[in-house]
Amino acid sequence: MEQSDARLDRIRNAGFAILSTDLGAAGPTIDETWRLVAGAAVTPDASVPFSDSAASLTGTWLQVVRSNHIVSAADELLIAAPFQGGGADIHDWIPVRVTGNINLSSMADAKGSVEFVGRSIEGKSYCGVTAEDDGYWVVSGKYPIPRPTTWIESTSWPSRESTTLAELLDTIRGSSEVPQIKIAVAKVLHEIYGLPVSKAREITSVLDRFLCPTVTEDELEHLWRSAVTPDAVD
How many other C-beta atoms lie within 10 A of the C-beta of residue 217? Predict the structure, then answer.
């Protein structure tokens, strides 16, 4: 774990016990977490005026991370080392244990601001402290669940301008990802190549159940060109 001694000292001085295990190798990254914590539409769980004591910020943060299960049953979580003087150099998640002596004022950077992010060990939830105009914001949330990539998104499709329909059908028939049915061809023609549903159905009507054309290659290409470039076809 490549972290500066000064950063690690700052974390230790804030009362966190640094763990030796590398628990942050997988899961959401620090950059992902900062984008969620510092987004324009963020609403904080709580705000703490700058005039309040360090104990107020510390207590608020502890309440947020405990109530939102960001710390584990063993009081462990991952945190990002505080920025040095507001810089954004590369750093890793640091696994820590929350002790009874947390004082977030010791996490302050060279300008005196306390800003850092953290996440749960299993990578489901996150938290952060940011310095805003009206004081410190304490933010938490759940990481978005990634949407599975569909077969139509994972397939590399030839360009509309350069491909022929015969080549496109070869791509479809040669893919183990694309369902080998006419409705899948119609979906590709409509969603990838922008054909109206009626035109997509017209093309699939000249395919057999193996997705092979039942018309000549010239007739097939005329159907395709009349659909993608209707003004260029007599």
Answer: 11
Instruction: Name the one residue in this structure whose structure tokens are 């061809």.
Output: 185
What span, in angstroms and rounded, lies between the C-alpha atoms of 144 and 232? 46
Give residue-wise pLDDT tens across range 184-223. Answer: 999 999 999 999 999 999 999 999 999 999 999 999 999 9
What is the crossing angle of helices 182-191 and 165-173, to 10°?
A: 120
Taking CA 40 as the corner, what is the angle to CA 37 and CA 42, rounded to the nearest 5 degrees? 50
pTM score above 0.85: no
Q: Collect all residues with Cβ–Cβ distance below 8 Å to 101 and sequence separation of at least 6.
A: 15
């974390």: which residue's tokens? 11
Per-residue pLDDT tens digits for 137-163: 999 999 988 778 888 988 999 988 888
45: left (phi over 0), alpha (psi -120 to 50) or beta: alpha
Question: 185-204: buried (b, 16+ CB within 10 Å) or exposed (e) per residue?
Answer: bbbbbbeebebeeebbbbbb
Q: Are 92 and 2 in contact (CB under 8 A)?
A: yes
How far apart, in whole angstroms, are the C-alpha atoms of residue 96 and residue 90? Answer: 19
**Rg of the chain's alpha carbons, rounded to an integer?**
28
CA dist., res. 174 & res. 58, Å (int)? 59
70, 119 in Cβ contact below 8 A? yes
